[in-house]
Structures
1.
Amino acid sequence: MLEIKNLHVKLEEEEKQILKGVDLTVEAGKVHAIMGPNGSGKSTLSYVLSGRDGYEVTEGSATLEGADLLEMEPEERAAAGIFLAFQYPVEIPGVGNMTFLRTAVNAQRKARGEEELSAADFLKEVRAKAKSLKIDADMLKRPVNVGFSGGEKKRNEILQMAMLEPKMCILDETDSGLDVDAMKLVAEGVNALRDEGRGFLVITHYQRLLDHIKPDVVHIMADGRIVKTGGPDLALEVENNGYADILAEVN
Amino acid sequence: MALPEVKQTATEARLATLTMPDAGCTRAAREDALARVLEMGLPGRRDEYWKYTRPDTLISPEAPRAALFNSDEPLLFGNLDRLKIVFIDGVFSAEDSDDLELEGVSIDRIEDICCKDIHWAKELYGVLEARGQSPVQRPLAALNTAFAADGVAIHVTGKPSKPISLIYRHASETSDAMLHHIIRVESGAEVTILENGPAASRFNKCMEIDIADGGILHHVRAQGRDHERRAATHMFTRLGQESVYKSFTLTVNGILTRNEQVVELTGDDAVAHVAGACVGDGDFHHDDTVFVTHDAVNCESRQVFKKVLRNGATGVFQGKILVKEGAQKTDGYQISQSLLLDDDSQFLAKPELEIYADDVACSHGSTSGAIDETALFYLRSRGVPVKDATNMLTLAFLAEAVDEIEDAALAEAIVNRLEGWLSRHI
């Protein structure tokens, strides 16, 4: 599904290399987790995959089902199936959450040559999905993320993911700022979307999110590279011993 | 004091092209207004109040030529039930207008207020304009009082069932029009006034609005799309106790527009909101000049002005809140913001507060900035194409001003017009 080869990325504005050769393959139906200390390049990887400005790919490739992601505009990547759940969802005053969602859903459908959802069908679907994430009607009517609590913002990300039905979901520290109950709710939302056609890349500092979203593969990222890959046990090892041991072992 | 020679010459040159209408009972008001013009002189480049907007083409003897804008877009407010009063290049067109009969309101042409002996109108024509000449001079408004050949007097005594819609068509590329309207809203009465259209190649419009205790006036205006048109408009509004005035203006295109709002809250507990949204691309200069005077207790005023500018367009905001001695518990708010879609456009803002009461809450803010890149990426990352995302964020930027329109159908008409413009220009 997602194939990243020898990806090197630097900041556009300065000579700072952030990713120094990332190799990663996420298969359809699998959940991969990336853990790593601060500054290891995890968030950069998520931004580069989704097409944010400010980064320059100096070497390597990233493809989704064989299509070159790095050549595409952010909206084209979205239509191709990439979804990034933001660590800090953006507040957009003046744009209603519902309007935003419907525009996004229909823009993607249009880009894929599919028929747009009618207002009635859209409403039915969004209500059902919002309900399962405990998002009330009021939140749907409010401007995007404005005045939302940390938990509400993350649930709103998952609602967007549920509505857009991407092939490849990238979750950037979705657990940050969440209490245990909110984390469970978010994890349930994610788990509900797990299916054999869909890949997940879950970026997190802590193992606790992975208690709720069980990964198939865990990668440790440090200094712009994936330094170790293992099964779910690897996350536990990090939880118990921190990153120091693993990094020492690799170096 | 004698005027500077340049100003004297320019004023005389302009006056030489004008003839005062033979207008019976408004004659005295017109003569007074002409005396004010002669005393003040027409605006010049060196006037402080015209620091950011060049008045030259607004006072030149001839109106600069302005091409007509042809569009297939549906007419604004076209599907709304309203009483239509049509002016073509500043001349009333009975043929295109509706019958001026509507319950709760009486409407007459300015030229008829004398022969019909309409007292309230005789007592209002030129009066609020004259009051509004202090502390800042507005010579173009006095010029209008003196020379406007047409306009309507609207007397609201009840709650008419539909809005009164003033439609300004532009038919001649060299038209130079002046209209003067007066509106009196009686105690407890309520009306919605609509204005739309490019009006003329050069348009000078003055509106005097007197709202009695408990009266309500909603005003929604859309200034039309002819790129080369010029306009100088004044609205003078006096509010009585517990009265409400809510005005919104959309300006789309126009090489030069100066909209002045002069609002005086003279009765306790009155509310005045003036808002504006403008969008300009290229040869576009838009100036909102607002002066709100609080002269009563516990009144609320809001000024919300938003401008979207690109390709060298210029936006100006001069907004003042004056709180007079004794106007306690005043709640004054003023925001002016611009969204600059490139580095060539500019926004010039001069927010002012002058407060002589000690128990008031007044705030003001002014910003200019570009599209929020983070928000743009967020929308695009969800699949919204960059053009649509930019439009969404631009409309969102304008929303605070558009939200000042209370009537949902009117707000929708304005948003549709904005969307049309954005789809053509962004």
2.
Amino acid sequence: MLEALQFEFMRNALWAGLLASVACGIIGTLVVVNRIVFISGGIAHAAYGGVGIAFFLGISPTFSAAVFSLVMAAVMATVTLRNKQRADTIIGVLWALGMAVGIILIDLTSGYRVDVMSYLFGSILAVPSDDLIMMVVLDVVIVAVVAFFYNGFLALSFDEEFAQTMGVPVKTLYFILLGLMALSVVMVIRVVGLILVIALLTIPPYIAEKFSVSLAWMMVFSTILSCIFSFTGLWLSYAFNLTSGATVILVASLFFFVSLLWGRARVST
Amino acid sequence: MEDLAVEVRNVSFAYDGHPVLRDVNLEIRKGEFLAVMGPNGGGKTTLLKILLGILKPAKGSVLLFGKHPGEMAHKIGYVPQDTNINKEFPISVMDVTLMGRLAALGSGWRYSATDRLLARQALERVKMWDYRHRPVGRLSGGQRQRVFIARALAANPAILFMDEPTASVDKEFQTELFEFLKELNTSMTIVVVSHDMAVLSSYVKSVACLNQTLYYHDAAEITDEMMEMAYHCPVELVAHGMPHRVLRRHED
């Protein structure tokens, strides 16, 4: 592994893994405790529409995916707040619609398409330095916003109705949360691809929840776990020449099942 | 008008065209201890959410101390049903109690030393201070309810709303709870919403029965008309030995 670090792409990959882990740990924790995993999946897949638009118009895919995801997040937030019963159906439709728009627009775009795969399965080994700077900026925004509104997010997540009676603007916070989630999803897509984003957003917080005493610690533990999964996956993919995104998720899933078994064993003793 | 804590005028509410509340009128005086009784699905929770400002009535108006519920957040204490809580959530008893201070904070929501002191006093009042570091998910139903009461008290409320207070509490703790509410009632208005007749064995001063429409009675007893309207079946009432009369004597 150490000799691999002399390559810039490898150093960038490690940085990308670390930076994505911070976003995953913080936003993933809020996603898991608020039970909005399905929305995060919807946004991740709908983001492909943004990638399609970018290829069609010849603009930056990351920028386009970010804008498109933000719009989708706003629509999904509105739908869930207006009609909780039907929300999952509508999110499912948007999920598929985004993918379909992306696929059709890429069909309509002539030329080289190898980049498209990197959005589906991630390309942590090909993260340019510019993207790393963007990831740092996004991490700073996420940490700052969540730290500032921490007690509001905590109240919203634990007991939304009580938070409302206390005058906490839960709807505004919910929009902010989905917005941050959309941006995080686009960032994590760089690392593991949009198909596997949900796993990296949910597995670390799920494991962390079991031994966390507060939401803040759950965010910290999730970030650390996410780092461990990313680095281990990256090392395995380098050593055995495997697809990096899938290897990262395989490592995470392995930990997930071990934690399940460990939890069971602890309960039965 | 000065002494009214709650004023509900001609409130109606419907979910997807299905009416839940019809033309509800209710006045609650300050210092009142009201039990809103009624069958499940009779609109109790909906009315409670309207009083708390969580739902907006489709028709009619609600005033808390002469103002809209949204403006009165700092006067409201709310104790929800235990079942609505995610027991896996990583949060300590102290952090839950502090949430009662949210209405009094600015937009940054930072707790001050005063907030912590008020949370501590509230926890001591319900005898849960020793459990302050414990995750709420690892408490018993009765202990968790105490914490939720502490959270409501930390807000220093003028009115306390409780949703199904007897639901996850054993009989022994119920008596203790009712004594505690009686004591609280000396300094605040209390509204309890429940389908459980055991609530009537507490120190309620008046009863309202709700089944889409609301029938108010200015005494701690349920009249035959209320029974008829709300339940169509008075069996449950007669079963327990109540400390004071619940059913009015038949006049015939």
3.
Amino acid sequence: MSGILECRGLCKRYGAMAALDDINLSIEPGRVVGLLGPNGSGKTTLIKLCNGLLTPTSGELLILGERPGALTKAVVSYLPDRVTLPEWMSARQIMDFYADFYADFQRDKAKDMLTRFGLNEQMKIKQMSKGMREKLQLILTMSREASLYLLDEPIGGVDPATRDYILETIIRNYNPEAAVIISTHLIADVEAALDEVIFINNGHIVLQSAVDTIRDEHGKSVDAYFREVFKC
Amino acid sequence: MEHGFRSDLPIYSQLVQRLRQDIVSGALPPGTRLNSVRDLAADAGVNPNTMQRALQELERDELVYTQRTSGRFVTEDVTIIARSRALIAKEEIRSFLAAMHLLGYQRQEIYQLLQEEKEEQE
């Protein structure tokens, strides 16, 4: 197997509670994958294991054959599910910061996207609205030439027009050598942008399948199928 | 970016339908050079691999061809386009007739209604 991300028997426990239990998956280069599941199903835990913010209780997680660490952080671009940018910095300063930290940061690309999103690089983060901060954070994440993009709820707090623009940005940055994992519960909005989906529930993978395979086999959208599988 | 995909069909087959319609209607004239897969995908708001699959299907139908160095083009063979157009028209007529049959109309009545419609428009 030559996946960008490989998980084998991956478990993460908090005391008696298993946040993730025996996860086996492989994500190939060139794939845009939706990580879908109800709240508390383990989506963010899986993403945090991938970027080394958490360590596995047992099992194995490899990114390009390496355990998460300094080497993998250089090739993984992570968008957290909340804004984590220092408020006192301006957009320009945060770009300096990214350029210092990440050898793969493409400043021209970031500046170009700032313009397209209507953001000013002189502006301080504390002056920005919530939506602007989220856009800036996405721009920084997508401006790296990474092998794996981990986007935790990238379209959660933004208006529909911005949501379209964010998805378009993800598609325009498509790289056949890289993989993108998007965690979300707004399935209908992202469905067309995905190759495949992973349904996760109570720390288990319920399904890994191509979007068009689900539509073909069940005659319904992934969104409708998700509602059926996770019916309360 | 354009949405509006039906939920009961694979996305790639809906892309095939849209592109085929653009070709037979002349919105994409014979010989037109198509944008890159990535741009077509971004404009349609779909995954690039899904767009690629749709284009491959159009290539199999010979409506589109790839020139190794310069990209993808709409066929210049107008008979292929005309054949595809006639096929779509036939499907449309069949589904129209099926819908009218569901309303209880017999063939003769349908022709009569069409005739009336034609006279009204004239």
4.
Amino acid sequence: MSSAATYSDVRARSYLAFWRTPFFRAFLSSPSGFLALILTGILLATALLAPLVLTREDVYQRNVRRRLEAPSADHVLGTDNLGRDILKRTLYATPLTLQLATSAAGMAIVIGFTSGAVTAYLPGRLRKIGVRLIEVMLAFPGILIAIMLVAVFGTSAEGAVLAIGIAFSPSLARVAYTLASGVAGLDYISSARVLGLSSRRIVFRYIIPNIAETLIVVSFNATAAALVAVSSLSFLGLGVQGTQFDWGRLITEGVLRLYQVPLLALAPALAIGITGLALGFMGEALARGLNPVLWTQTASIQSRTWLRRYFSSEYLLLSGSTLLLIVFYFLPWFGPDAADPDRTLITGATILAGSSNLTAIDIGSQGAMLLLRSGAWIALLLGIVSYFFERYRRICAVLGLICGFGAASYFVSLLLADFGNPGTALASAQLGFYFGLIATILLILQVISDKSAETRGGRHAAVAPSEGREAATDASLPQPLLQARGLTVRFDLESGPIVPVNDINLDLAEGEIVGVVGESGSGKSLTALAIAQLVPHPGVLSAQHVRLRGEDITVMPAGELRYFLGSEMAMIFQDPMSSLNPALKIGTQLTEATRVHRRIRGKQLHKMALERMADVHISAAETRLKQYPHEFSGGMRQRAMIAMGLMNSPSLIIADEPTTALDVTIQAQIIDVLREINQEQGTTIMLISHDIGVIIEICSRVLVMYAGRIVEDVKITELMTTDKHPYTEALIAAVPAFDSNRDEPLASIPGRPPDLDNLPAGCAFAPRCPYVFERCHEETPPLLHVDETHRIACFLRTDPPEDATRE
Amino acid sequence: MTSSQLTLHKSNKETLTWLTGRLGPWPRFLLKRAMSLFVVLAMLLVLTFLLIYMVPGDPAVRKAGIDASAEQIEFERKALGLDQPAHVQFIRYVQGVARLDFGTSFITKQPVTEVLQQRFPRTFQLAGTGLLIVMMVSVPLGILIGALTREGRNRRLEVVFMSVTSTSSAMPEFLTATFLAFIFAVTLNWLPVGTTQKSTAIILPAISVSLRPVASLARVVRLETLNVLAQDYIRTARSKRLPAYLIFMRHLLPNVLTAALTIGGLVFAGLLGGTVIVENVFAWPGLGQRVVDAVFNLDYPVIQGIVLYFGMIVVLINTAVDILLALVDPRTLVLSE
């Protein structure tokens, strides 16, 4: 299904209140969306209100007697070299700056998108020239083109806007070109055309929704870039002229006096930084909101969860400590006495506390400052640790609490009590200590209780898998090469846990070729990866044991495991095109594992590689080893993969759909090679395929998987004769035979493959099973022996109901 | 049909295909690169030549001065060759460029070539140091973060990385320069500003100029790392139980470097653009300062010369990157067909 359809479908259902729509949820699902809204709101409000609230006098009236002043109650951020209020001037410049940036970006967007889209629809040769032109323009630094164009258009605000509009259009043109030429060629567009939809409908219903996301993000980025460029030009003196001023121009004035009044440059610089941030966040959040794929992921996050997330301990620690550090380190520099920042703080604190005993404060508060300052650093550290490491989050929160209590009570006591008397201060510090002590004890208790709950739960889980019923038969069989018990892979997703591999028990005897068959999503590939200990993140593997040659590989230390599996097990994957590294020679890829695990090098290694290539019938091996994968054909690549797997003479080869990506004649080749290896070298092969035909051809035994479980384990020779699991029957019926009537439609298994996050109770196949009866919906059938070598997980076969009519 | 007949009867394009078909992959590749280099340089020449027509006002008047007499203006017009038809002017312009003669400044009467010789080394020093910082920081950083955040691990680290890089890539160079100067020169007084005598004077300008490209390249490298790590051949390498350093250095790095190199040329162009701004903050005596003055005074020959010079460097660097790419990744030779 195309994403366009999904998008419009969901749109059509938008009877939800706006703040509950998936768009808005996805928009707010990370802090950036939240910040984007707040920052944009502040910016727009400033841009609209500044010209109304501030008069021209506020920003232009000179007052030379009060020039270059530090921040005070009159002038919150101080004054500039002509005695004008820095904050007011910065705010006043907001609308002009935003206006210039948006109009420059608007121009760039209009020019860029139009020229890009037009280029995409030009005929062959012209189109090539157009693309080349865009590329050349792109290679050129945009700001330099803008500066050159300012010479053309003249040094003025309008000139700067024009220059930037043109200079920044090539990058947008390229985006538009890529999108336009990409989307127009997509399958669903061509099918829409075939269906006879009008161009207008195609554009609005299919093309626009699909490229809207990218265009919006790109537009916001362009606006941010334009803001930077306009400010840069103004800063260089090539933009806004005369009495007008924008942020860039304010910075020019400020940089000259950076040593005297830093805020003169820093205030407008901060304004640009905040605006850039708001634009970036907005683009990012909108992109997230407009991407329907992300909706399902974020839909499960309740609005309350993200609110709680923002006010959780790690965010509080981080924001609190940052705030403190800003107060301690950043603000004092703008105070009246830059050389002694502490005094600024102390004076401020005294004014807040309503005291006037300055000398007394000095004595007590030097210590307090030191304490608070180091406390703030510790809190920041705790915040960082608890942000990244969930394990330490609780202890960090409590330690932060202790710091907070201690410092706060100390500081409050200093302010409120007699500053000259250290006794009072000590008492309050002790108070803080006791608070901390109690908190620590509570924490330790909690941690202990958590731990014991965990171990209890853990043991419980470990006992659960089906054992016992297998144990009796195990002893009678010879020790298998591979034995897995209770193999389970679990993914804890935000939408809930799914278990794509569920309690698998299997044995592979030495020298056997065992097939694993099932529809896609049955968990067969993941079973293979689980046996190979390569479960992808965030999957969690658990098993009673997985023994290879009697060694339990689930408990083996990592280093030993690497060596053991590196030489005992090899894997062959589905697509030989992508499974070989395109940047490395075949020879390197063939030999590297042997070099690492068996420390064989040089001539001997080369000879081995040649032999293995011969094993898989690759001729001219000497040259072939020096070639890159792209010089091989598909079938030859897969044979090279097999040769690679054979290098360390493994006892087990797991082949995951080795023939699926190849055409039929090549498939037969690969099957032959695998059979030969099995016969000549006695290698055990586990062959995974969705094609039961392939499995019948080569395997001696087959494991049938459905919805993460093995539902049948049967010898190929018995496959056609005995009673089977209904799913196996359906699989076999779906294979077209040579003698099947071509006029009849191909048989297929009715119903849908199972949906792993929504499995029915009881047998997972029950909804599609023609023999289903009541018990199937209530209990999950266990995998039981019906004879020595045949296991089935189906009540119909293992425990048939008395009234059930057979077949 | 013999080859000579072929060359006689077929169009130029096919002659070319025939010619290149005879060569090995490397000469063929180099020939193609050289041709596109030539085309781009020609485009650059035309564009900079046209500049003089696009700029409002009469260059002759500008050179002679506002209060010059009609004869003087006429004299300057002749001297500049503006009385000639456009194609003659263009040929003269190209000839001049070929002799590395870009004309003389209207204002200082200094030959533009001399300006370039004096100023460009400083700009190159700044941009080169910047490029070094960019490559040394962003590639390891991108790979590290990519490895740590693969398959949706360490979501919080990803959030931090993304916000830090998006903030820094939105920071204009002059802002970074201002903040850095404030912190390290004004407040801490660790590093010098404005003097070019001390060797440490390059630190702040170089960092200012490289912060934005570091952030954006690190993001690209991280994305490319994630992309490569999700490839089947990495799974193959893991199934061979190779140690982590081999997986990263042999299987990941070459594939990631290709991507980093591809935009390396663009990064350098961006650095050159950044130097224009940063030079003006730190009073760094490179071409950036000079070009701004020239635009102010509409000093065409200087603008023309500097823009052309920058352009040529960018184009040459991009060609060098293409060749380097072909050396690193043999597929490029085939794919560029």
